[in-house]
Specification:
binds 5-S-methyl-1-O-phosphono-5-thio-D-ribulose, single chain, four-stranded mixed sheet, Four Helix Bundle (Hemerythrin (Met), subunit A), alpha/beta, seven-stranded mixed sheet, Rossmann fold
């Protein structure tokens, strides 16, 4: 398997593969503080729900590093004030959470780091820093392991010789590695079950064509790129056996926010009676909201729709709308594929049970 590493933490430094440059160029940017990371998340240097959660966890380590260095506390030159440190970390947490609103993994990652920090109240700076770094590394490692489990559970749903359709990029690039929806595709391919994969180009930022095609080609998985609008054509002709995507936030009742265009695919799949699967870790489930109506949908700059690079695509006076995500109601989702197992016809009861006892 080819290793794709969107996030690297080495010698106390965070490096992000600049996904805006793919597939032409593989270049890493060093990220030094939470403010810089917020901009990198907003600008899509790093994107995909789990990947922004994992990088935000490292962002909290950067915040602690910055605080201790600026205040010269690691060397003991200045006394350590817990309350001052806490204030500074709260600010960092707000900065990171403020970067994009829809993917819940972002606040999940930041909150987990915050809990770790609170459990070590009044410990010396070096102990705190080491523990925070250890926690972020654990989040990174767990994400890859979780994806592999999702891949294994999902592959079992793919019959031999299947053609799949996916949207956006829910691959190694969108996670710490391996991927959720693409994790299922990777695992099913290794088991010899995949004939070929249709990839929606995913306008306006082209995560499908730029990122998913790049990843799948590296693995030698047969891919055909299609315009988003062509999905209905192939599905209605019986050329697609199942549709699978990732998720950015799943409400307690199973309603799921994912890349704009996902809802349309779920409707198309239902109309043609083929399965529509969401592959996501339980960290993408937000039990604090009851339904998809409560999910905040990010609206991005209209320029992303109006321009392709430098080239304008519409008359200059044109206005555009640019929602980054939509919500697919749970009733259209055949199953949620999680690390704890497959939740068929998801609802609040089954989802809560998955958290408590796994999926039976
Ligand atoms: O705007 P993006 O590129 O961050 O959107 C990404 C998606 O919608 C993915 O499908 C989702 O985050 C799941 S990634 C495993």
């Amino acid at each position: 398997m080819v290793e794709i590493r969107p996030i690297i933490w080495e010698n106390g430094k965070l490096m992000l593969l600049d996904q805006r440059l793919l597939p032409d160029e593989e270049r890493y940017l060093v990220c030094s503080n939470p403010g810089q990371l917020r901009e990198h998340i907003r600008n899509m240097v790093v994107r995909g729900a789990p990947a922004i959660g994992v990088s935000a966890a490292f962002g909290m380590v950067l915040a602690a590093q910055e605080y201790f260095h600026q205040e010269e506390m690691l060397s003991g030159a200045k006394p350590f004030s817990w309350s001052h440190f806490l204030e500074s970390m709260e600010l960092a947490a707000r900065t990171l959470k403020d970067s994009r609103p829809t993917a819940v993994n972002l606040s999940w990652g930041v909150n987990r780091m915050f809990q770790k920090m609170l459990a070590l109240k009044n410990m010396p700076p070096k102990t705190l820093l080491d523990a925070l770094e250890g926690e972020a590394r654990a989040i990174y490692k767990e994400d890859i392991e979780t994806n592999k489990r999702i891949g294994k559970h999902g592959a079992a749903l793919v019959s031999s010789g299947s053609t799949l359709l996916t949207h956006c990029n829910a691959g190694a690039l969108a996670t710490a590695g391996y991927g959720t929806a693409l994790g299922v595709i990777r695992s099913a391919f290794q088991e010899g079950r995949i004939r070929h994969v249709f990839v929606d180009e995913t306008r306006p930022l082209l995560q499908g064509s730029r990122l998913t095609c790049w990843e799948l080609q590296k693995e030698g998985i047969p891919v055909q790129l299609i315009a988003d609008a062509a999905a209905g054509h192939y599905i209605s002709r019986g050329e697609v056996d199942l549709v699978i995507t990732g998720a950015d936030r799943i409400a307690a009742n199973g309603d799921t926010a994912n890349k704009i265009g996902t809802y349309t695919l779920a409707l198309l799949a239902r109309k043609s009676s083929i399965p529509f699967y969401i592959a996501a870790p339980l960290s993408t489930v937000d039990l604090s909201i009851r339904s998809g109506k409560e999910i905040i949908i990010e609206e991005r700059d209209e320029k992303e729709v109006l321009y392709l690079g430098e080239k304008i695509l519409a008359p200059r006076a044109t206005n555009a709308r640019n929602p980054a995500f939509d919500v697919t109601p749970a009733e259209l989702i055949t199953a949620l594929i999680t690390e704890k197992g497959v939740i068929f016809t998801p609802d609040e009861h089954k989802i809560r049970q998955a958290f408590e006892n796994g999926v039976s």
